Amino acid sequence: DYPQTLIERIQWKAPYPLLRHHFGLPTLEATRKGIEQIAEARVLDVISLGVDQDAQENFFHPERQDPRRTGAGGAPVRTPDDYRSLYTASRRGNFPLLRTYSGTDDFIRLAEMYVETIHIAWAAVPLFWFNAMDGRGPHDLESSIRAHQELMSWYGQRGIPVELNEPHHWGMRDASDVTFVVAAYLSAYNARACGVRDYVAQMMFNSPPGLSDAMDLAKMLACLEMVDALTPSPLRPPSPLPILGEGKGGRGVGVRAGGFRIWRQTRVGLLSHPLDAEAARGHLAAATYLQMVLRPHIVHVVGHTEAHHAATAEDVIAACKVARRAIENALRGAPDPTHDPRVQARKAELIEEAQTTLDAIRELGSASGADPLCDPATLARAVAVGLLDAPHLKNNPFARGEVVTRIDERGACVVVDPDTGRALTEKERIARLHIGASPKTR
Predict the structure, then answer these.
(1) Helix H or strand E encompassing 261
(2) C-beta separation of 166 from 124 below 8 A
(3) What's the pTM value of the predicted model, to 2 decimals?
């Protein structure tokens, strides 16, 4: 009786959001038993299978696997039957949906197996990450962007929803709020261009952790307003966007008219939980209550133990109960902080600044003949020249890593002059990059 596709389950459970939690233990048997326990508890709608690095990168290459890191970072799945056994374990209680990582190599082969073994609820695909730039995969930046677009197209052709776990990867590397918003727009733009119909917009709050609630909310509202412009409405016809793989040369000429839906997913910042378990419970409850302002369709619960250890089945169940109580309280009638003048002012500021960066990316690729916002070469170059940058990318061979950010007096993450500490507008920041200048004059 429990719907077994994402969209059907969202509509069935409304107005309550689906609850999702990450789960994967160092052994297959412990993971299987934990899934049974979680399903029987009937508190979680979606189990995101956490699998180890070899399962993500070397599943089809046993010769590349390292026995010494088996189970490091998640369950050591090694065969399709391993995945089938985890799916079988979930066939009880409230029959939760399953999903897992898209992997860092052999993307289509993995996708085919996920659909066949765990009936993957939706795919999470990066745009700029999980490659040689962050050390998570074998592909260079431009090649991985192209491969990720092909993967989105594969899922889109089969009507499977897609999430781009993109903006928070910039946020967790201390990128500015503007870069976070730009990444959110590029994510949805590329998903739509790749033929995805149902797009899961993930919004990780508390990234970076020092943001104030007001500025964090403003950032998410800016993301949603920009992404919403890509969807049709009774008063706004769908804007034509390129379909990758159609038209002359196979790129950027065809258009897609409408049929693009946004499903909102919120979550607590992965790096924001305090180490103390009781303090972390309080943070989980407070952060979840704030997220409900956005009326999410999915709440990705990040267990209160994550700062200390990977969540056990008992931890997952406890965290879901904390989140569910906060959600119930909010749905009974919460105040609406979106009307706070500070929030609205910051939202407008972020949208204007993000448009400046997007215009710079368009200009960067204007001579390519393809749509710059979904052209892999242009997007990779946008990182290389510093239009998209983060402090944690310092000394990275694919990025500038020169930007300096700070949390200002409002609790917003802004770019600052490294010498004076003065906040810089995007126009000022981009001018300092000297794009097009020779290395000696930069």
Answers:
(1) strand 261-267
(2) no
(3) 0.92
